[in-house]
Amino acid sequence: MKKTLVVCLLAILCLSAGSALMALSNDAKEFPSCKYCGMNRETFAHSRMLVEYDGSTAGTCSLHCAALDLALSLDKAPKNILVADHNSKELINAETAAWVIGGKKPGVMTRNAKWAFEKKEAAEKFRTENGGRIAGFDEALEAAYKDFADDTKMIREKRKMMKKKMEDKRG
């Protein structure tokens, strides 16, 4: 009887842990495009973020757009801030992740890239190969806010060029 009970409890525990992991991996289906820029979050699975508040959740493509959401939601305290591990694309806790700021690999929605890694060793390896500097979440978020003016200008210029290309193709 006790063995059966233990097996049942273990099965329930495994199923609920599996459900939680599945919920995390299904975030790109629940929030297919970034709330702010419209970019496909599955395409940018390596940089996507999920900010969970009481009663609402924001799915974004990058720290740039997550920072925008956090700034616009000052009246809400985030329950969880999740970010994709750059290598595995699995969502991890953004506040405990090791971040690499800068480097030669182009960022998402920014000239000054910000990448998250679950393990500091992975961040160190990335930094060795691509440059940049290791940081914590607060420093990465601060860098995102400091980069906003330049990033906004860059994004507007890119969109203007894309619009012109589309118009040139049509006529």
Uncertain runs with pLDDT below 50, 5 residues or more?
5-24
Taken together, the total number of domains comes to 1
**What spatial order of strands do you see in the largest sheet?**
2-1-3-4
What is the beta-strand fraction? Answer: 15-25%
The rough form would be described as globular
Structural class: alpha+beta
Rg over C-alpha atoms, rounded to the nearest angstrom:
19 Å
**What's the overall average pLDDT, rounded?**
89
In which range does the helix fraction lie?
Answer: 40-55%
In whole angstroms, how far apart are the ends? Answer: 78 Å
Number of helices: 5
Major pleated sheet: 4 strands, antiparallel
**Strand count:** 7
Order of helices and strands: HHEEHEEEEHEH
Keywords:
5 helices; 3-stranded antiparallel β-sheet; globular; 171 residues; 4-stranded antiparallel β-sheet
Describe this structure in words.
The strands form two sheets. Strands 2-1-3-4 form a four-stranded antiparallel sheet, covered by helices on one side. The chain has one domain (31-170). 49% of the residues lie in helices and 17% in strands. It is α+β, with helices and mostly antiparallel strands and 171 residues long.
Write the layout of secondary structure elements.
Elements lengths: L1 H24 L1 H4 L18 E5 L2 E5 L2 H10 L7 E5 L6 E3 L4 E4 L12 E4 L2 H11 L2 E3 L1 H34 L1
Antiparallel strand pairs: 1-2, 1-3, 3-4, 5-6, 5-7
Helix pairs in contact: 3-5
